[in-house]
Specification:
Layout: H1 19-23, H2 45-49, H3 53-57, E1 67-71, H4 77-85, E2 90-95, E3 109-113, E4 125-130, H5 140-148, E5 151-160, E6 166-167, H6 175-184, E7 188-190, E8 195-199, E9 208-219, E10 225-233, H7 239-243
Parallel strand pairs: 1-2, 1-4, 2-3, 4-5, 6-10
Antiparallel strand pairs: 5-8, 7-8, 9-10
Length: about 240
């Protein structure tokens, strides 16, 4: 075992899927994702992220009007609580399915229903989070590249990340070269907590080509069905060079 990930070998599926076919799959269009997770307590963002988002945003580093972007936000219960505690904050949640509750939102909170593969914000944020959401994103590396540019200079990105669901074209494990490339780009990965983090916004280019995803890969470390993402090399520093 390396970096807390298993070294299993899997056969590639007969066909990889992308785009609308992937986002329309029941594993990806997950109507239970972050539906009951609140800001603090047992089933909470504070527990999953390892810090309290409102305390982070309330620090002097982010000024009087902090901002938070939550990807795969589900019902947005934690964001509703945060907006009430930080009335001057700008908080955005984006989810493929969107909130099912049709109640009024606190001032400063926006919940958007959109495909994260196509959506981009019009501003930068002090905090960008994705609580167990990357497990359902096909091209999760491209989303991480883009999310890195959505941070302010002192902003923080934190996302749950499962390297064991990254695959080479032949179906073998691609976690080692991908983690190496992420670390080289400035990310930190905690294998114990399955959390990937980046401090400070910046342009990032990872040396991999997205080939498609397998929504039938089965459960990941959470015990829930997840998507396996397949990547090929991009010239020097790609999968073949990094795995050598």
């Amino acid at each position: 075992m390396v970096d807390g990930t298993s070294r299993t070998t899997a056969q590639p599926p007969s066909r990889l899927v992308k785009g609308d076919e992937l986002t329309g799959h029941s594993v990806v269009a997950n109507s239970t994702m972050n539906r009951e997770r609140v800001l603090a307590g047992g089933n909470s963002y504070t527990r999953e992220l390892g810090f309290t988002p409102t305390e982070f945003l309330n620090s002097d580093d982010h000024g009087p009007a902090p901002s938070w972007l939550d990807l795969c936000s589900g019902e947005g219960l934690a964001l509703r609580e945060a907006a009430q505690r930080l009335p001057r904050a700008s908080i955005t949640g984006v989810d493929l399915v969107g909130p099912l509750l049709r109640t009024a939102l606190p001032e400063g909170l926006e919940l958007i229903t959109a495909d994260l593969g196509r959506w981009s914000p019009r501003r930068r944020y002090d905090l960008v989070t994705c609580v167990h959401g990357l497990h359902y994103i096909g091209d999760r590396l491209a989303l991480l590249e883009r999310a890195a540019t959505w941070l302010t200079g002192t902003g923080l990105l934190v996302a749950h990340f499962d390297p064991s669901t990254l695959r080479r074209p032949d179906g073998s494990d691609a976690s080692r070269p991908v983690l190496a490339a992420l670390r080289a780009a400035g990310f930190h990965y905690s294998a114990r907590h399955h959390r990937l983090s980046l401090q400070g916004g910046r342009p990032i280019t990872l040396p991999f080509t997205y080939l498609g995803a397998d929504p039938h890969a089965g459960p990941n470390y959470t015990g829930q069905p997840a998507v396996a993402s397949y990547y090929g090399p991009v010239g020097p520093g790609g999968l073949r060079a990094a795995s050598g």
